[in-house]
Amino acid sequence: MRTSINTRSNIKESNIGIATILAFAMIPMSGFATDIYLPSLPGMTSALGITNSQAQLTLSLFLISYGVSQLFVGGLLDSYGRYKISMVSMFICCISCVIVANTHSIYVIYAMRIVHGITMAAMVVSKRAFFVDLYSGEKLKHYLSYFTIIWSTGPIIAPFIGGYLEVTFGWESNFYFLGGFAGLLFILELIFGGETIKHTTPFHPRAIFSIYYTMARTSSFTLGIGMLGLAYSMVMVYNMSGPFIIEHYFNLSPVITGYCSLFLGLAWMAGGFLGKGLINKPFVKKMNINVALQFLAASLLLLTFILFGGLWTILVFAFLVHVGAGFTYNNYFTYCLQKFPRNAGIAGGLTGGVCYVIVSILSYSLIYLLPAKDGHNLSYSYLLLIIISGMVMYRVRMLDKQERSA
């Protein structure tokens, strides 16, 4: 419950338009943090003298810290406001990127990737709450449906840039670029940003825990988050294995890795646009069709790779799987964030946090159990995630019916 309410909003009315654009610009930061150095993963293993799994662990550590941090940062944002916390986080993120680029210790990199996860959680969750603070009704729904589309610009642009940076300047340049992006946003926020929260919730751990408990007990909400995790895991399994398949199995350059990631990033964006375009269509029917088409695409990936074994077989059918994943994410992200509008920071943090914890565990486990050295195990990973998605989606539908009839 909300008690001892304080008014904190101080953003200038004339800056809201620019601030909204900056908020959208912040959304892809987590995608940049994972994808900018994907083409550099094989190069990092050579330059640092580490194994493939150690390089892949830098991704998993970011995902875990990013996810776990979101579980707690939402309460802080609802109690102390969005602006100062996000500003401090941007500054620390920028500094930590410079540290990564100037060390050759994998353990320092691990530590800084955890810092990246924590700071980007605060940055991204604060901007999700920004929209709920300033907008409502159909306009809010309209903006929320853009989140997946805007976020997907990270996976599209970042590896494309990263491939060229890797070839031209080395893996360190990826983190200089990431730090520069954070620094630019910091400066623009200083000029145009401001606090948006209208009413703060006093930071009483017991009360905040009670809100979390209420959300966690809403089964359709938690299973909806599970659908988000399963959808993004399909993308992350490719992200963690694709560079090694392309650069080791097919003996191609990091630039090709960047182009392939750009192509599959477009798939995620296409799924987001498709989700937005079909936002008013019957939810159950469109999700059932989506899962069936994903299963067909993953099955064809396995069959065609056995018959032909070319890179094109991976790209064509992985593209279709990723379109479906973006479609699922777009629909369920909007579904989850509208469940608890009065606690937007906590709901956004819990949604993103649990999602990324699921992604980190699932993707690293699948890569460990089914090392995607070629197209075979990649297709098996897709099929497993799609089958589980179908089962979870069915359960969400049944629980949603029960909640509405209660």
UniProtKB/TrEMBL annotation:
GO molecular function list: sodium:proton antiporter activity
Pfam family, one: MFS_1
Gene3D superfamilies registered for this protein in UniProt: Multidrug resistance protein D
Subcellular location: Membrane
Recorded topology in the membrane: Multi-pass membrane protein
Alphabetized PROSITE patterns for the sequence: MFS (PS50850)
GO BP terms, alphabetized: xenobiotic detoxification by transmembrane export across the plasma membrane
PANTHER family xrefs: MAJOR FACILITATOR SUPERFAMILY, POLYAMINE TRANSPORTER 2-RELATED
Major place of residence: membrane
Statement: the UniProt record of this protein carries the keyword Transport: yes
Protein species of origin: Chitinophaga polysaccharea
Name assigned to this protein: Putative MFS family arabinose efflux permease
Family annotation (InterPro entries): MFS, MFS_dom, MFS_trans_sf
Ranges that cross the membrane: 57-77, 84-101, 107-131, 143-163, 175-194, 215-235, 255-275, 287-308, 314-332, 344-367, 379-396
UniProt keyword annotations, A-Z: Membrane, Transmembrane, Transmembrane helix, Transport
GO cellular component terms, semicolon-separated: plasma membrane
